[in-house]
């Protein structure tokens, strides 16, 4: 594919995060139920995961289910949980073949026991893989993550394990669910929505944002390449002047 040759392999995002949105609207456009959109969304997940691993992206984080998504109709929540369990069963092979390690962020305890069990197994079976870390944000909310970090830091301060003065960015990073991940370099959101929806608020402080109209089940290699090419054309200044960067 020609477009692939225009990607600079030395300037890939170290951490790519994606808000996979638009499954419901995709199904509706086809006169189908929302569940059909979610099923087709899992195919786009597989393509994206494989493409990122082949490109050489070290960390991919996918927003799969938010703390707010628990408020959807029970039938839809149940469908999403079943799809998650089935995908984990089916994708273990893909993860193993591509040397991908599975990681999760979010409130694990809120997930159904069967999903927890399947996740634990895949995490344990892929723990030594080192080409790419695939993080699934499941039952994830950034505010909940920050609250949980504040609570554990407070307990440590109370027990004299850390002093208030020692609290810095690194201490906060270590207490977030994403403790072993670098900051997000590129955040993609599909489906034309321009919002963050409680995703990785701290971690995207300096991320480049990319929005596309494409609905998640239609997201293909080409769409990913376009996002990366857009990222590579940008000048990341981190507060400095353009002259300082050059
Ligand atoms: C994203 O698609 C999947 C989840 C949030 C679980 P949606 O289900 O939000 O689809 P739309 O936004 O209603 O089209
Ligand atoms: C964000 O999508 C969550 C996921 C993609 C898992 P939503 O569809 O739930 O977000 P809102 O409600 O449009 O903000
Ligand atoms: Mg949505």
Automatic annotation (TrEMBL):
Cofactor details (free text): Binds 2 magnesium ions per subunit.
Alphabetized UniProt keyword annotations: Magnesium, Metal-binding, Transferase
Signal peptide (from-to): none
Catalytic EC class: transferase
Top-rank taxon, per record: Bacteria
Gene3D superfamilies on file: Decaprenyl diphosphate synthase-like (3.40.1180.10)
Active site: 21, 69
UniProt GO molecular function: ditrans,polycis-polyprenyl diphosphate synthase [(2E,6E)-farnesyl diphosphate specific] activity; magnesium ion binding
UniProt cross-references to InterPro entries, sorted A to Z: UPP_synth-like, UPP_synth-like_CS, UPP_synth-like_sf
Homology family: Belongs to the UPP synthase family.
Name of the protein: Isoprenyl transferase
Source organism per UniProt: Flavobacterium microcysteis
